[in-house]
Specification:
By secondary structure, the chain is mainly alpha-helical. It has eleven helices and no strands. Helix 4 packs parallel to helix 8 and helix 9 packs antiparallel against helix 10.
């Protein structure tokens, strides 16, 4: 208990004093995860929205594959990216192995199925509620996916925040493709694993506290967004209380006069 108390005290001192090594690791970790989420969300939001409204042969098999990818261990993703980026791999010419770019790529591949699957579910639920009305107004699948995604933008913001939390807490893939090189590819999760094995508990605990604070902040932000969405929906419900205004709203969304 005394050892834990001393480690916790030293960890807090490192955080309060703004230790340069600790801040460098934290900044690198945030940069990697933010870049990976931007890349994954740029693809996953569009693909998920389209899958939410599209109906085609083989869709069930594609969704089964997507759901399977949600459970793929991060070390497997790291191994695949490692093989692709190795000298003999298909992407070896990029020279990205053990670099910042390799970690971004690994986390983006890991987060992409999460963003796509959650977006698909959100848009498909909205399609069940409003899709028939939009179809009657002449909206094609692509247009419906855009309109429904915009209508569910608050829920999709929650998806983005959740994907960032998934990325920043990942350790296996970035350990494999980044190499955990001090000053270059060492992030919070890999540093915690390394410093714990070395017995440097204060630094590991300090990074752990910061990681917990980041995850807690993301959960608080999700809760605030959910409350903001509920309040916005209740306000919109009050403004559209009139049957005439309620009928005009979806028509304006697709540019059709009621």
């Amino acid at each position: 208990m005394t050892s834990f108390t001393q480690s916790a005290t030293t960890a807090l001192q490192l955080i309060v004093s703004g230790d340069a090594g600790l801040l460098a690791i934290v900044g690198r970790s945030l940069a990697v995860s933010a870049s990976a989420c931007l890349l994954a969300c740029g693809i996953g939001l569009g693909l998920g929205a389209w899958l939410g409204v599209a109906r085609f042969a083989g869709r069930g098999a594609l969704l089964a594959l997507l759901n399977t990818l949600l459970a793929v261990p991060s070390v497997v993703v790291g191994l695949v990216i490692y093989l692709l980026l190795s000298r003999s791999g298909a992407l070896g010419f990029l020279g990205w192995l053990f670099t910042f770019q390799a970690m971004v790529l690994a986390q983006a591949v890991l987060v992409l199925p999460v963003v796509t699957a959650l977006t698909r579910q959100v848009v498909e639920d909205a399609e069940s509620s409003h899709g028939e009305q939009l179809r009657s107004l002449g909206a094609r699948p692509f247009m419906r996916s855009l309109l429904l995604a915009w209508d569910e933008r608050y829920a999709l913001l929650t998806v983005l925040i959740a994907s960032f939390g998934r990325a920043i807490s990942e350790v296996g893939a970035v350990m494999i493709v980044g190499g955990n090189i001090d000053g270059f590819t060492r992030v919070m999760t890999t540093a915690i694993a390394l410093e714990t094995s070395k017995g440097d508990l204060p630094l590991a605990l300090g990074l752990g506290l910061i990681l917990l604070a980041v995850v807690l902040g993301l959960n608080v932000l999700i809760a605030l967004l959910r409350r903001w969405r509920e309040r916005s929906e209740s306000d919109e419900g009050g403004h559209l209380a009139s049957p005439d205004r309620a009928a005009k709203a979806p028509a304006r969304a697709v540019g059709v006069a009621p």
